[in-house]
Structure formats: structure tokens, C-alpha cells
């Protein structure tokens, strides 16, 4: 039992190693350089289209996570997030989300779009009532 407890405490001690932030900050730029090399393959006009580079971005994300874990740091952490934000600023600063500004159609079109279904509904009700009164013919 003591041997098992010793192994358990040794495992717990290994998991509680302190984060080596300087090692992580030293290694993260290699992920950035790799991502930069891969992004050179993508036309810069397509940098806002995620489908064009999703695999490259996934590799970049996995690299940053791996380097953070190798330095005994959790991921994401503030330093890694700062690095990732820098990469985003470098490549995606011109990608703004364009919000669609919805406007009502002109009154003439709006009235027409409202009146057509109302008139069709009235016509159908009238037809049903008329047919129900004339059931002897049908």
C-alpha cells in the first residue's frame, strides 16, 4: 500500500511542475514561423476565408498547445493567447465582419406583399363557404 501511495504522490508531483514560461515563449515563435510559411501558399486576398487555410490554422493551434504542454504550462494561457493574438493581428487584421443592414422595402412593395396573402385568404374562405352551401351540386 505504501508503494502505491508513493507512486501516486510521485505522479501528482510530476503533474504540478511549474510552468516554464520562458521556454514556452522561446518555442512558440517556431509555431508562428511554420504558420507563416504555410500561409504564403494562400493568396492574401483569401486570408479571410477560413476554408482556404483551416488545416494550416489547425496545425498552428496544435503546435502552440504542444509547446505549452512541453513547457509544463496549461493551454491556453495568457502568454500563449497573447502570441496567438499577435498572429491574428498579423494575418487577419483586415478581416472585419460585415454586418448586413436590413431595411424595409418601399411602402408600395410592402403594402403589396401584405395585401396579396390577405386577399388570397379571403378568396379561399369565400370559395369554401360558397362550395359548402352548394354541396348538392358537387
UniProtKB/TrEMBL annotation:
Domain of life: Eukaryota
Organism: Pycnonotus jocosus (Red-whiskered bulbul)
Gene Ontology cellular component annotations, sorted alphabetically: cell surface; plasma membrane; receptor complex
Record-linked PANTHER family: RECEPTOR ACTIVITY MODIFYING PROTEIN RAMP, RECEPTOR ACTIVITY-MODIFYING PROTEIN 3
Positions of transmembrane segments: 109-131
GO annotation, biological process: calcium ion transport; cellular response to hormone stimulus; G protein-coupled receptor signaling pathway; intracellular protein transport; protein localization to plasma membrane; receptor internalization; regulation of G protein-coupled receptor signaling pathway
Keyword annotations: Cell membrane, Disulfide bond, Glycoprotein, Membrane, Receptor, Signal, Transmembrane, Transmembrane helix, Transport
Protein name: Receptor activity-modifying protein 3
Keyword Cell membrane in annotation: yes
UniProt main location, coarse: membrane
GO molecular function, one term: coreceptor activity
Pfam families: RAMP
Membrane-protein topology: Single-pass type I membrane protein
Family classification: Belongs to the RAMP family.
Compartments (UniProt record): Cell membrane
Amino acid at each position: 500500500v505504501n508503494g502505491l501511495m508513493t507512486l501516486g504522490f510521485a505522479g501528482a508531483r510530476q503533474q504540478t511542475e511549474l510552468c516554464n514560461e520562458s521556454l514556452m515563449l522561446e518555442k512558440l515563435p517556431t509555431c508562428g514561423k511554420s504558420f507563416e510559411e504555410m500561409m504564403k501558399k494562400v493568396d492574401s486576398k483569401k486570408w479571410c476565408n477560413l476554408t482556404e487555410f483551416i488545416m494550416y490554422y489547425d496545425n498552428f493551434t496544435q503546435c502552440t498547445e504542444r509547446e505549452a504542454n512541453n513547457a509544463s504550462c496549461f493551454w491556453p494561457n495568457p502568454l500563449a493567447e497573447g502570441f496567438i493574438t499577435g498572429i491574428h493581428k498579423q494575418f487577419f487584421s483586415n478581416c472585419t465582419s460585415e454586418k448586413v443592414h436590413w431595411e424595409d422595402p418601399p411602402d408600395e412593395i410592402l403594402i403589396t406583399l401584405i395585401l396579396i396573402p390577405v386577399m388570397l385568404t379571403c378568396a379561399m374562405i369565400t370559395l369554401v363557404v360558397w362550395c359548402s352551401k352548394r354541396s348538392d351540386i358537387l
